[in-house]
Write a structure and sequence with these properties.
alpha/beta; 8-stranded mixed β-barrel; elongated
């Protein structure tokens, strides 16, 4: 170590040594930056970055060597062989390129160390090739122990440099650590190797390169090397800036709504959690406001989606312009917005909702027309209504649903007794969706028989749902929920397919009757669905009958009658259900030739009343005059059956004749071999 220190201090120009060290440090930092990019890329990009790293490393090692060598005071005339000088640069580029390539080929410490070792050998090869180009008038002697020590230092420190760069434990210090180790590898190789050199002058004439010329050459060499290194550094920085801009854009896209530019659901949740922490710390309150636009669908349907998008953008801009400190508004999708405010007094929350309401309800100028949308507002407050972000948002949502259902002109604040009923219906809707997906629903069949012959004429398919926790849930409860949540169409299709498949396996030729809801009847593809299901199951159309109420028809009378004519043309029977309780329009009976009229159970249950008997007699007479059979529902007593038989009713259905049962309970599982007779309970 003393010999090395004396060599540096006595035999070298200190200013050129400092210049060499500066070049080495700058270059080593650039090398690590470019090598880092090579590590995180692959394919052609990795090859390109490895090439830049190799060029930068070769230039750094070569410039450091020649500047430091020109700093060496040989005491004899010195010349440089141009061919070997260029060869030494090429050797440095190729050797370091191989080493860095090995280091990135596998993500393991062994390959990092091995690659670093090859880089150390490349540093050594470049140095001694460069020394071969160093022609002097004197005898040259190499001390082998120092030569071996220099090569060993280069290999060890270069291997440690790449190992440190690949180590996640160093964190943000890995670049500085690996840069320092690489500088150490280059510097120790050069100065220990120069200590190994002993020169005996043969003549004392002036050197071809005067000290001033050597300094100029050293400065030129350093300048060229720094230009090459700077090019690599700027390439890495430009790539990093480009990646940073791209990441910023991606982050903005991930956290904000593409249409309105408002924060999205993820962004809002993050901010809400942050504001909750602040509110807990300083004892303030938070208000979450759920907003749903009222007439947005109408604008979409009449003026198109482009107009709808304009409405969303304008409303979003107006609400955003009303925000103050500790306030935020986000778009969750569709016409759903959510706002947030931190406040000390309830009046501040009231003013906040008033500002948002005014922004939403203000007139909108949309090109050729003006519009007003309005909104339903639901408010939940921390800590009164909830203590966590998810519950707070959910409670605001429930309050908004109540405001929408009640058409409330003012914001609705969360009210546990009222809104828990809404929550219960939403949970039930979700459970119904799961039951439909899993096939956990059942069909029960209730027999329909002829009054005069007592023969079975058909079975009505009745949907049943047994909830895993709540037990049996009646159709009167879950069917409206299905209609509210868009489940009625898949539910109706499931019933149709299951009923037709079951009926196709019956030994008898009895009909199967299914109920059709208004939403199903409004669907344009309903006739096509019936046709496909009949083909899939093999059930003859004459054995299928649909039942629907007049309410379903009057929603869109012309369209409904058109769809019914298509269904009837297939040979499927059509029955008018619950006759006597709805519109009971004679025009409907005239406009469409129904195959059956079903008399509502309300009149059957009151057959002891002369008025009820008179109404039943009138309906039966109407059916006979129009040649439409009449089926009476809800027969529970022999007396009711007797009255209907006396009045000339065609068919009956009710508990007296048979309770609704699962298919397996009628006989053989999955097959009805002997349909239950009239009177069987």
């Amino acid at each position: 170590m003393i010999d090395v220190a004396m060599c540096i201090g006595r035999d070298h120009d200190p200013w050129l040594v400092l210049l060499a060290v500066f070049v080495c440090c700058t270059g080593a930092f650039a090398i690590m930056q470019m090598f880092g990019r090579a590590q995180v890329t692959d394919g052609p990009q990795r090859i390109a970055w490895l090439f830049l790293t190799a060029v930068g490393a070769g230039a750094t090692i070569w410039c450091t060597h020649f500047v430091a060598m020109l700093a060496y005071r040989a005491g004899v005339p010195v010349r440089l062989d141009p061919v070997l000088t260029i060869v030494s640069l090429i050797a440095a580029v190729i050797g370091t390129g191989m080493g860095f390539g090995i280091a990135v080929s596998h993500r393991s410490r062994f390959y990092s160390i091995a690659g670093g070792g090859v880089v150390g050998l490349a540093i050594s090869g470049m140095h001694f090739t460069g020394m071969a180009a160093y022609r002097i008038d004197g005898l040259v002697e190499w001390r082998i122990p120092y030569v071996a020590a220099s090569v060993l230092c280069a290999v060890v420190f270069a291997g440690a440099a790449l190992s440190a760069f690949a180590s996640p434990r160093l964190g943000r210090y890995r670049v500085a650590t690996s840069t320092g180790l690489l500088v150490t590898a280059i510097a120790t190789l050069h100065f220990v190797a120069m200590t190994a050199l002993r020169i005996t002058p043969l003549r004392l004439s002036a050197a071809p390169l005067e000290p001033g010329q050597m300094q100029a050459l050293a400065l030129a060499t350093a300048l060229v090397g720094l230009v090459v290194i700077a090019a690599g550094v700027f390439a890495a920085l430009i790539d990093r800036w480009t990646r940073s801009d791209a990441m910023d854009r991606l982050h903005h896209m991930a956290m904000n709504d593409a249409l309105t530019g408002l924060p999205n659901r993820v962004n809002f949740k993050s901010e809400l959690k942050h504001q909750l922490e602040l509110a807990r710390a300083n004892g303030s309150q938070l208000g979450v406001v759920a907003i749903d636009l009222n007439r947005f669908k109408e604008i979409n349907d009449i003026h198109g989606h482009q107009a709808g998008d304009q409405v969303l953008v304008l409303v979003a801009q107006r609400m955003a312009s009303q925000l103050g400190r500790h306030e935020m508004v986000a778009r969750f999708g569709g016409d759903e917005f959510v706002a947030l405010t931190r406040f000390e007094h309830p009046s501040q929350l009231t003013l906040f909702t008033d500002r948002l309401k005014a922004a939403v309800e203000a007139p909108l100028a949309l090109g050729q027309f003006d519009a007003r949308v309005g909104g339903s507002f639901g408010v939940a407050v921390y800590p009164a209504d909830a203590d966590d972000a998810e519950t707070l948002m959910n409670n605001a949502d429930l309050a908004m649903f109540r405001a929408k259902s009640q058409r409330s002109p003012t914001p609705c604040y969360y009210d546990a007794p009222l809104d828990e009923a809404i929550r219960d219906r939403r949970e039930l809707a979700n459970d119904l969706r799961i039951a439909l997906d899993r096939g956990d629903l059942q069909l029960h069949y209730q027999v329909q028989t002829s009054v005069t012959t007592h023969e079975v004429t058909g079975y009505e398919a009745l949907l049943r749902w047994t909830h895993p926790e709540r037990g049996p849930i009646g159709p009167s409860e879950f069917i409206p929920i299905a209609e509210e949540n868009g489940l009625i169409l898949p539910l109706g299709e499931w019933v149709l397919r299951r009923a037709c498949a079951d009926a196709a396996g019956w030994a008898s030729e009895a009909k199967v009757a299914i109920n059709v809801s208004p939403m199903q009847l409004a669907h344009a593809d309903l006739p096509r669905l019936f046709h496909q299901v009949l083909l899939d199951t093999g059930l003859p159309p004459r054995r299928l009958e649909i039942e629907l109420t007049e309410t379903a028809i009057f929603a869109d009378r012309d369209r409904a009658l058109h769809v019914l004519r298509q269904i009837k043309a297939m040979g499927i029977g059509v029955a008018l259900d619950d006759f006597g309780t709805g519109y009971s329009s004679l025009e409907t009976l005239r406009a469409f030739p129904f195959d059956k009229i079903k008399l509502d159970r309300l009149f059957v249950s009151e057959l002891e009343s002369p008025q009820a008997v008179a109404i039943v007699r009138a309906v039966l007479a109407l059916g006979k005059s129009l040649s439409i059979p009449v089926l009476a529902e809800g027969i529970e007593t022999e007396r009711q059956l007797g009255v209907l038989r006396r009045e000339g009713c065609d068919e009956v259905q009710g508990f007296l004749l048979g309770y609704p049962q699962a298919l397996a309970e009628y006989g053989q599982p999955g097959r009805i071999s002997e349909p239950p007779r009239a009177g069987a309970a």
